[in-house]
Amino acid sequence: MIENLGPNVARLRKNANLTQEQLAQAIDVKKQTISKLERGAGYPRMETLELIAEYFHATPTQLFGTAQEIAISDTPAIMAQIDKYDNAVQRLLAVRNFMSGKTIADIDRTVESIETIKTFFQPQTVYIEDEHGITDEPEIDENGKIRKNVSAFDQIPFDKLREVEQLVNLAKDYADKVSKPL
Description:
- The chain has about 180 residues and is mainly alpha-helical.
- Helix content is about 65%, strand content about 10%.
- The protein has eight helices and four strands.
- The strands form two sheets. A two-stranded antiparallel sheet has the order 1-4. It has a two-stranded antiparallel ribbon with strand order 2-3.
- β2 and β3 (about 135-140) form a beta hairpin.
- α1 (about 5-15) crosses α3 (about 30-40).
- The mean pLDDT is about 90.
């Protein structure tokens, strides 16, 4: 178990694209400490081991395990990455299928439609107006942040729409009752 420590630290260090000196500086030890550890010529103090584990966010298996044990412990992370990439590939294939047979003009119209939809749901920047109209300079609030209007979606009076829906339903119910013969 302890014999795996040196090679595993070297692997973690190399995967992070660090030199022995960079790792030593990062955890505040001498380069020789890292060199001896990786060669198996010495073993670190518990504090140094904790610093290494913390620096790499390494599990005990990643520090002391065999290659097989590390591979097995990494399986859930690998599967999660596979799922992530599979989802990305599926989305790309869906886009490819959607885009097949489309012209550049079709694509341009689709992009314009998407931009229109985005502006409906996103707050819009408020721009400073001069005597000739709107400029490209955004308004800045008292906190130094760009001022935004609420989105068009957030301005929809849903409570009023519900009231209208209720009135329409009442009118339909009344019309149904009136139109039925006695």
